């Protein structure tokens, strides 16, 4: 029986006691979710007493169901700890906005505690009557507990959302102070720490939260920055009016009634170097350069996609700014020097800004000349011209933009049908390089390139041309709408699967990455399965020379979510032991996808897969290791799979034989 227990009872109890004491010893409660946190702490303290008494009883062999219960409680308390630390150490304002989600999370934790206690055989444990009564009471309360969302937090959250949506110049200082005080923001240091935490949250959400979430957090940062200046500047004025009137505040947008047209829509500060973007809106150079440099290609104010990334100085507004600064006794030298230094900084981080006008003009003349040869030249001249564009588009976003503006894309698309192998290869590679610039993706698709690219992928004159066609499809499919358009082409997915079978290591990787992108759109998943991708991908997992394990796992994990994919994956006998090995030796991403596949295979009638996992001596230790030390996603999936296997084991009449 002992061989079926996932964690030894002694080490499990020690870990539980240590973890519970860590949670119970939290000194300062977070300023949000106060009631949910405090009641959860009381429950964990009661459970800690139970764990300590079980440990003191020195029972050499606990009942299997009690070990299962303790394993479940260990998983729950670990997640409780993570959530509490997030509430305490994370952004209070972001937590306030997420109050309903956090409240629901605590409610789920309590329900999981109740389900774990359902299988706890209290009558078989050596504990005092007092502890038994406390645990029974805790169990009853946990089973009937209802979701609690603090109405005061909801009210404060709504006021905060109103502040975020309103014009900053219309703020009521007392309202701002009340909202911020309610989440523990009272001093200048508190405000600065909150902005730092919000910036950390931006980085955390950048990969998963989506543009709207990141935009909301950036809005919060702007709000806190503005509120800090407004609240503490007002307090300073009340304390010493003469000091304020005798000096110019560093934050001129707060110390003076700055007209809205002089404020940057991003930072809300007085603009120092106003520039116009492609949408026609004006921003401060440093703010919009930072926006573009972080991967955004839309206008922050209108949401319109920018057709080019040039920043054009707004000389008229800059002149009015200087005039206003003179009228309000704001030193122009400071404003100008700051603008120059920030401009130089931007020139270092945004490549199209850093390119000199001479260099841009040179590239433009070269591109126009070469495109002319594409249009009018002989076969040999066209081959050479396509090669020159291929090289020119290889580096620099400016080069890619200028080549497209010179009209190269339609001619390159036409050359994909060339009978000359080198011309075709150069044309498809040039399009691949051009597609790295997002706006060119739209132009390439608008030129009707997808049919010709798929033709090259399927039956190109050279293997390099075929592989670069696959890479071009991967690049184009980065845009969601193009996943649909590419998948709708009847030969696109089968041609990628064909390259997966026939290509070099690089070609197979490009094909797998393209399939992974396309499979993010649900309608493409059955097409990928029908094209025979599943057995081929599993075969590549076993091929050390192929070197595309992570990419193959990524595609399989996506195909698992469609019925055809699940059925095809289930047919593979070698897959489960292979995935178990990858849990131990795979990359971080490979481990995540391996767990996802195993979890999907065990669900919905996957008892046979679960049994094979339980039989394999390496599976449970590997899952336990990932549940403790893996990435956040791997930990969640490993814990879910361990719980599923726990239930499978407990339902068996003879767990020893598994």
TrEMBL record:
CDD domains: RING-Ubox_PUB (cd16664)
Domain of life of the source: Eukaryota
The enzyme's E.C. designation: 2.3.2.27
ARM repeats: 407-449, 491-533
Keyword 4Fe-4S: no
Pathways per UniProt: Protein modification; protein ubiquitination
Pfam families (UniProt xref): ARM_PUB (PF25598), PUB10_N (PF25368), U-box (PF04564)
Gene Ontology biological process terms from the UniProt entry: cell surface receptor signaling pathway; protein ubiquitination
Name the UniProt record assigns to this protein: RING-type E3 ubiquitin transferase
Coiled-coil segments: none
U-box domain span: 257-331
Matches recorded under Gene3D superfamilies: Adaptor protein Cbl, N-terminal domain, Leucine-rich Repeat Variant, Zinc/RING finger domain, C3HC4 (zinc finger)
Enzyme class, broadest EC rank: transferase
Organism: Gossypium barbadense
Molecular functions per Gene Ontology: transmembrane receptor protein serine/threonine kinase binding; ubiquitin protein ligase activity
Organism lineage: Eukaryota, Viridiplantae, Streptophyta, Embryophyta, Tracheophyta
Catalytic activities: S-ubiquitinyl-[E2 ubiquitin-conjugating enzyme]-L-cysteine + [acceptor protein]-L-lysine = [E2 ubiquitin-conjugating enzyme]-L-cysteine + N(6)-ubiquitinyl-[acceptor protein]-L-lysine
Entry keywords, A to Z: Repeat, Transferase, Ubl conjugation pathway
